[in-house]
Amino acid sequence: MLAVSKRVKQTKPSYIRNILKVTQQADMLSLAGGLPDAELFPLDILTQAADELAQSPSIFQYGATEGLTELRQWLLEENGAAEDVLITTGSQQALDLIARSYLNPGDKVLCEAPSYLGALQVFDLAEAEIHTVIAEADGPNLAQLEQQLANYKIKLFYAVPDFQNPSGHCWSLSKRKAVASLLAKYNVALIEDAPYRQLRYQGEPLPTVSKLSSYAAFHLGSFSKIATPGMRVGYVRAKQALLAPLIKVKQASDLHSAQPMQLMLLATVRHPSFTEHLDKLTNTYRTRRDYLAELLQQQLSDKLEFNVPQGGMFIWARLPHHNAMSLAEAALRQKVAIVPGDEFWPSNHTPDYQAIRLNFTALTEPQLEQAVSRLKKALLQCSPMK
Amino acid sequence: MLAVSKRVKQTKPSYIRNILKVTQQADMLSLAGGLPDAELFPLDILTQAADELAQSPSIFQYGATEGLTELRQWLLEENGAAEDVLITTGSQQALDLIARSYLNPGDKVLCEAPSYLGALQVFDLAEAEIHTVIAEADGPNLAQLEQQLANYKIKLFYAVPDFQNPSGHCWSLSKRKAVASLLAKYNVALIEDAPYRQLRYQGEPLPTVSKLSSYAAFHLGSFSKIATPGMRVGYVRAKQALLAPLIKVKQASDLHSAQPMQLMLLATVRHPSFTEHLDKLTNTYRTRRDYLAELLQQQLSDKLEFNVPQGGMFIWARLPHHNAMSLAEAALRQKVAIVPGDEFWPSNHTPDYQAIRLNFTALTEPQLEQAVSRLKKALLQCSPMK
């Protein structure tokens, strides 16, 4: 049998993928995924955008690896920075392209702990050495961050400053500035992954960390959470010289991303009704967040500890008395899926504490109520840790 | 500045990409690309397929890494084999996923010489050691193939048996069988890349080499040449166990390929008029192939040596008297773009002979006539090799 590569062997498997068959059962309620609610997709706008494809037949030809010029221009205008932009097959691909462009096996990458599983998988595939810094409610622990940067030759720092997956944390302005200046001091490049940035339910947007950075920075954007994920359109914005190797890797990886998707996406976000759609989306998600938080507070406050996130898709709940993996298994038996916190630490790290991630965007309020009642049963069945 | 990875540094750059700005000039005629003719895209069918997207709103949600079930089923029915199929962002991505799944740095890969540049780039990125076997008109030189397999621990053999890019060669049935049995004898896996298989202008289809193989084999398919390339839908067919690591890598790379593109593609190839479209396409390309061959024969037979390929997109012409790179440069000055043969040998190999690749699918007959007349001028200006 053909032996698989070392990079594949050491890549962390995905818990969500492993339980996929179970979570797809009709009577299962899932708080596990990171799915937007399909009922809220802007289908009218998308249909109109699909109808207009035939007016631009050239998008059916091979295109530039960088992406569709009109979409790139729109993204650069939006930002106004002296940067360039590369369109990718979801922002996930941007992350993979950065890793392949800049990391040799053994290179050191710093991530928040907990961190997005998809990023950990990318760094595993790049055979990087993953270091962590504790994610606090207002951003990474600065003393530990400086210690890591000073003691190890860290090449890239991966972070989700806006409503992090899984913790929901949003970095404060002062921590954003402090991180930017520490990265500049130690010549460490930043990967700022911002898929949830536009899902803000309260407070004012803060500047991106990449904008505050004076050293190399990549800003990753996604349309999966605000438009639709199935179209797989994302992007990475950075200085042109930083993007050049990514373009070379992307050319060998897939030549370019699907052009009709890029055009449909542009027509969608430019549509006069898109702001209205976005308002409806954030209003619905805010209500669901509040509803889930209230249910947890009322019914499970002695078993779960959590903050209400200002945005994003998840409530991250610490378990003072229970083991997360055992709870996740008990929950599946009660027909509710959750993700145990272990999933968000690198393979060779032990989680700092027990926690679970609960999604509040995919289920309606009655479903959330039902899910929490099942979770409660699971918690009652699950013996507390000694 | 952030240092790029070793894999990127050693990846062969693309000549076509390097001359892109020049070839995009309005008065340039390009025989250099591998583009299908956009005028022949099945726009009516595609428009209808786009209109139907709204009837399947679930495709706008996140989907399975493996691809859309309906498209996968259709591809497996078409083939009827006890295999599985993974949908990729063009067959280029399938190649990259195989390399990342199975190759460690220093692993040995065998390619035909000349070979598809995009494959050489993928193997460079995987830091593989590339070996070559001479591509003859009816397939690889068998003695040299066996010698390579016997003397080196080759892990993968990459080949394009149907109307190879760049040579246009189509392997004979006896060589297909001989290669399959040699690969089984030495336990070497096959990557059969078949983007041109359906662009056959004469003769009967031969069995795929992967079907004749008893050892591990991947069959790569594309819709770029028969439907449209801008949608980026391709696939790889193989035994399920062989695809499992590819799925793991693809999940980290981009989660999945754009679902609306997969559905549109399926609706397109299933459309009752698609066969008619395919007939029109192959008839037009056959006429252009014949026309270019006639022009070259009449005007340049003392300077170029070539066979008329039975299918595909290219005439591969040997240059008995000229240097290909100098000719390509002289041609650009005459406003016609061609690809020098050097491009199709791995970075550290010297081409076995001087040659150029001429595309016949992208230009109309009057344009081909004009292009050959410019090429003739370039040949006259270019000093013969000593």
From TrEMBL, chains A, B:
InterPro entries, per the entry: Aminotransferase_I/II_large, Class-I_PLP-dep_aminotransf, PyrdxlP-dep_Trfase, PyrdxlP-dep_Trfase_major, PyrdxlP-dep_Trfase_small
GO BP terms: alpha-amino acid metabolic process
Superkingdom of the organism of origin: Bacteria
GO molecular function term, any single one: L-aspartate:2-oxoglutarate aminotransferase activity
EC number: 2.6.1.1
Recorded coiled-coil stretches: none
Cofactor(s) of this protein: pyridoxal 5'-phosphate
Key words, A-Z: Aminotransferase, Pyridoxal phosphate, Transferase
Domain Aminotransferase class I/classII large: 31-375
Pfam families in alphabetical order: Aminotran_1_2
Protein name per the record: Aspartate aminotransferase
Organism annotation: Agarivorans albus MKT 106
